[in-house]
Amino acid sequence: MQTNTNFSRGADAQGQFGSFGGRFVAESLMPLILDLEQAFNTALSEPNFLAELDRFQAEFVGRPSPLYFAERLTELYGGAKIYFKREELNHTGAHKINNCIGQVLLAKRMGKTRIIAETGAGMHGVATATVAARFGLPCVVYMGATDIERQRDNVSRMRLMGAEIVPVTSGTGTLKDAMNEALRDWVTNVDNTFYMIGTVAGPHPYPTMVREFQAVIGRETRVQMQAREGRLPDSLVACIGGGSNAMGLFHAFLDDPSVQLIGVEAAGEGLDSGKHAASLKGGVAGVLHGNRTYLLQDNDGQITDAHSVSAGLDYPGIGPEHAWLHEQGRVDYAAVTDTEALDAFHVCCRQEGIIPALETAHALAEVAKRAPLLPKDHLMVVCLSGRGDKDMPTVLRLMEEKA
Description:
This protein is of the alpha/beta class. The protein has helices at residues 30-44, 47-61, 71-77, 96-109, 123-134, 145-150, 152-160, 175-188, 206-214, 216-229, 244-250, 279-282, 320-328, 338-352, 358-370, 392-402, and strands spanning 16-17, 20-21, 67-69, 81-85, 114-119, 139-144, 164-168, 193-195, 235-239, 260-268, 284-288, 291-295, 331-337, 379-383. The protein has a six-stranded mixed beta sheet with strand order 3-4-14-9-10-13, with helices on both faces.
């Protein structure tokens, strides 16, 4: 069902995408949220801010990221012509830095002197620690104890750049629990602290703000594909936890009905197993972390634990714009199991000489299903959201267990 032809218009004045989004926060945070919204809207209208953002994107992040023809993967599947949007070549190794550069420039304009963040796979934490170091701001990153154990290299990188890592042991010790603790810190330190959310979730204006800073991915893809093939792509594929790399890729194409958009959730051990992180395929609407969206919940409305082999997708919710696009039928959402993602991880390593993040491997697994069934003139772009160096301990352990 596609009932809307202006999908790129974004949230309304209350920060809602249809019935999703909004700002469900403590009363003490509301003035700060409104200040942030005003600062964000003002910054976007000022040429000086946009020029400074562009300069850091080019000289610090390394943009534009390449659009790469995955020739051997295309030959292997024998169908669609597959391109990679190489966000893993950004400074810090993932798309997360696009958003962190934008948010740290806002924090400086607002006079904030302390940065906090939460992280799951560690890539947002690394990007946050990186920009905090660059701008000389103290930084505290909340991270679940489970994720600290499986993402040790990223923890070391954050510490090297001066960030304080606070282990979170409540719940399952993953991203949801880390976000809870970061929100508690923010409520306590509203005067001097800027909370740098890493995905298109949270109270308004965060979903819109993060998407705006990530939308450079899709804008570049549009220009690069026109230059390479002389037309728009036929389909775009991206993995989804909260959904920032996907919204960044999709947004520039939302109002192009010829372009199919495919988001890939983590089905974990299977949608019927109860151990997955597929909020759209296996969840219902509810409120968490300041916004209304699709969530994994039990019959009493309590948030249930998510599961994914990839720490970055291990979250029981999804950004509210994705929830809206799902109900509008504009984006086709699929789900991929841990096993399928791991198989795609190895195929990408061997066919293209690229070690993808386990998050990205979910998108590649969906490509493996769809590309062979498509004609050879079909142009498919996959967002390579991050590199897989951080996942080597997890992958090697699973390979040993399987041997």
